[in-house]
From TrEMBL:
<dbReference type="GO" id="GO:0003824">
    <property type="term" value="F:catalytic activity"/>
</dbReference>
<feature type="domain" description="HIT">
    <location>
        <begin position="5"/>
        <end position="114"/>
    </location>
</feature>
<dbReference type="InterPro" id="IPR019808">
    <property type="entry name" value="Histidine_triad_CS"/>
</dbReference>
<dbReference type="InterPro" id="IPR011146">
    <property type="entry name" value="HIT-like"/>
</dbReference>
<feature type="active site" description="Tele-AMP-histidine intermediate">
    <location>
        <position position="100"/>
    </location>
</feature>
<dbReference type="InterPro" id="IPR036265">
    <property type="entry name" value="HIT-like_sf"/>
</dbReference>
<dbReference type="Pfam" id="PF11969">
    <property type="entry name" value="DcpS_C"/>
</dbReference>
<protein>
    <submittedName>
        <fullName>Histidine triad nucleotide-binding protein</fullName>
    </submittedName>
</protein>
<feature type="short sequence motif" description="Histidine triad motif">
    <location>
        <begin position="98"/>
        <end position="102"/>
    </location>
</feature>
<dbReference type="InterPro" id="IPR001310">
    <property type="entry name" value="Histidine_triad_HIT"/>
</dbReference>
Amino acid sequence: MTGTIFDKIISKEIPADIVYEDDKALVFKDISPQAPIHWLIIPKTPIATINDINESNAQLIGHLYLVAAKLAKEHGFAEDGYRAVMNCNQHGGQTVYHIHLHLLAGKPMGWPPYQEKMK
């Protein structure tokens, strides 16, 4: 599990555009954004996938969502809305095996017919 790119970002071995940091989590801008705001919220304690969440680390996962809500409020997109999503394993689109919450905002991201109504 050690040695992922996220471990290197946490240890500051490689740079990232950091948005927020506390003792449990680190938030940085995605290098390939899919929305005007696309940040990755990662735990500082490595957990490989959603399948590896258990009773001992469940509070840490909750903390990631609390950070997402806090940042949405602080950066002014909570009321407009945002997406918070985790991918799991290859077929789920996970490419780094250190669990991470994608926080996306800044444009409508609903179901396609909903998006058509927004135009």
